[in-house]
């Protein structure tokens, strides 16, 4: 059990790192795709297409066996990069949609007041786009939590790999061990979804409240 | 001279929308631009503060030419009020008004809010300061957007059909705010078919058609004795209830 808890903490650490990387990079990508000059837009779109078009497990293997030949990097770091860059591609699509759903007139009104493009994005469009992103971002959270278990293939000792160790070292009951593991993933997933839903409701604007339940 | 618009041309593709428009405005003047739909009235207003880049021509505000270099500074002097308000959805009414002074004019938070409350009072919206735009009626939203323009303490306000997105019973409250501003000496350039405002507040009516000014003059002349047949025909339509 302590091994599983340790595995879970590694999985959560991986999740937090990859989602943070994905958040920062995904936001930058989406801003470039929506507001950037075409010389910036094209490479960003290419990046996004590539990372959305390759299976996560192949990316993990590519980064672990490919990139580590050139740059010294442990398996955890390789997993953060592979899954984080992939998450950035997915998150950029969430933010892109959110940016585009802010009525264009508000950007025009901000520019007409004398705001430059950067100010208008930062003070007017971004706060609205982030609010609208929380819902779709909850899905991304769930899929990336589950994707952390794939890091198992490049030797990151996260929850799923700990479970395998326990089973082979102690001849523990496979079904029970994996049932506990499944429950752990499930609980983290629900807790995360619940927290994000709370956040979404707290930030909801009057007149645009959420209806229905999580 | 507060505003000088000189020979503005603008085309979209093959279609020449503005075919050389020029006019001037003195401080404190109100002018109303009228003309049939698709004539380029909105395009002209947007060219004045370069929300749309004109192909040709010059705009001077207070003697200084608007260029791509001084664009953001000049836009602070020329406020714009839109047909569909374009309030910032995520900000309370008072913050919509305060954001300009706060972010662009270097006011601290308290000074910006003080000014915002003052401008909301001017448009009769003090009691709705804490509401979000989605909680306001159309007339209130337009008055809030006028307060947002006023908080920039501009030299000139451009209005693009400020009442035409409103139900008829709500246009009155916006028109009376505009009348009041005109009488306080605000310089205003208004695209509108509100005959009431044009008669009461305008110093001059500019009648446009096909991308050109075809007639201009004081309201008494334009309404009582228009020189051009086209002006007369158009006024007939709008005076008899129709909105073009
Ligand atoms: N961004 C654009 N791209 C292409 N054509 C445009 C664009 N903006 C305006 N036009 C065209 O320019 C012409 C003039 O449009 P504009 O909106 O300035 O007219 P208007 O006089 O304001 O009309 P209305 O009374 O209907 O508001 C129209 O034919 C319109 O289709
Ligand atoms: Mg128009």
From TrEMBL, chain B:
Q: How does it sit in the membrane?
A: Peripheral membrane protein
Q: Give the location in the cell.
A: Cell membrane
Q: Mind telling me which SUPFAM superfamilies this protein's record contains?
A: P-loop containing nucleoside triphosphate hydrolases
Keywords assigned: Amino-acid transport, ATP-binding, Cell membrane, Membrane, Nucleotide-binding, Transport
| A GO MF term | ABC-type amino acid transporter activity
- Which Gene3D superfamilies does the protein's record reference? P-loop containing nucleotide triphosphate hydrolases (3.40.50.300)
- The main location class comes to membrane
Please verify whether the record's keywords include Membrane: yes
Concerning InterPro entries, the annotation shows:
AAA+_ATPase, ABC_ATPase_HisP-typ, ABC_transporter-like_ATP-bd, ABC_transporter-like_CS, MetN_ABC_transporter-like, P-loop_NTPase
Signal peptide stretch: none
Cellular component (GO) terms are: plasma membrane
Q: Which family does it belong to?
A: Belongs to the ABC transporter superfamily.
**Name this protein carries in UniProt:** Glutamine ABC transporter ATP-binding protein
State which gene encodes it.
Answer: glnQ
């Amino acid at each position: 059990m302590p091994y599983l808890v340790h595995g879970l903490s590694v999985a959560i650490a991986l999740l937090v790192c990859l989602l943070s990387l994905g958040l920062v990079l995904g936001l930058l990508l989406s801003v470039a795709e929506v507001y950037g000059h075409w010389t910036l837009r094209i490479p960003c779109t290419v990046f996004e297409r590539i990372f959305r078009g390759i299976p996560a497990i192949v990316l993990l293997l590519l980064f672990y066996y490919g990139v580590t030949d050139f740059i010294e990097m442990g398996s955890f770091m390789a997993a953060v990069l592979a899954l984080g860059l992939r998450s950035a591609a997915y998150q950029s699509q969430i933010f892109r949609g959110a940016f585009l759903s802010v009525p264009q007139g508000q950007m025009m009104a901000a520019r007409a007041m004398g705001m430059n493009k950067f100010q208008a994005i930062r003070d007017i469009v971004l706060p609205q786009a982030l609010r609208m992103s929380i819902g779709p971002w909850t899905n991304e959270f769930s899929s990336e939590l589950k994707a952390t278990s794939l890091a198992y293939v490049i030797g990151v000792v996260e929850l799923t790999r700990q479970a395998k160790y326990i089973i082979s070292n102690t001849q523990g009951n496979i079904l029970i061990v994996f049932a506990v593991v499944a429950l752990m993933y499930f609980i983290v997933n629900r807790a995360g979804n619940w927290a994000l839903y709370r956040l979404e409701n707290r930030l909801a604007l009057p007149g645009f409240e959420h209806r229905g339940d999580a | 001279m507060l505003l000088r618009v000189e020979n503005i041309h603008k085309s979209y593709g093959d279609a020449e929308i503005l075919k050389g428009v020029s006019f001037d405005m003195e401080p404190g003047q109100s002018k109303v631009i009228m003309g049939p739909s698709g004539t380029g009235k909105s395009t002209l207003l947007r060219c004045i503060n370069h929300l749309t880049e004109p192909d040709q021509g010059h705009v001077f505000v207070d003697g200084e030419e608007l260029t791509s270099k001084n664009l953001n500074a000049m836009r602070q002097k020329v406020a714009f009020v839109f047909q569909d308000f374009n309030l910032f959805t995520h900000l309370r009414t008072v913050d919509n008004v305060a954001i300009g002074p706060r972010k662009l004019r270097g006011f601290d938070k308290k000074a910006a809010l003080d000014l915002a409350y003052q401008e909301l009072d001017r448009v009769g919206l003090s009691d709705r300061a804490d509401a979000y735009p989605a909680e306001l009626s159309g007339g209130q939203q337009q008055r809030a957007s006028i307060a947002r323009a006023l908080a920039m303490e501009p030299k000139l306000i451009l209005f693009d059909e400020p009442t035409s997105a409103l139900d008829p019973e709500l246009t009155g409250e916006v028109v009376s705010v505009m009348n009041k501003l005109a009488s306080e000496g605000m310089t205003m350039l208004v695209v509108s078919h509100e005959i009431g405002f044009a008669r009461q507040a305008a110093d001059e009516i500019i009648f446009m058609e096909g991308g050109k000014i075809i007639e201009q003059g004081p309201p008494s002349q334009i309404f009582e004795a228009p020189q051009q047949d086209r002006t007369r025909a158009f006024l007939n339509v709008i005076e008899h209830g129709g909105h073009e």
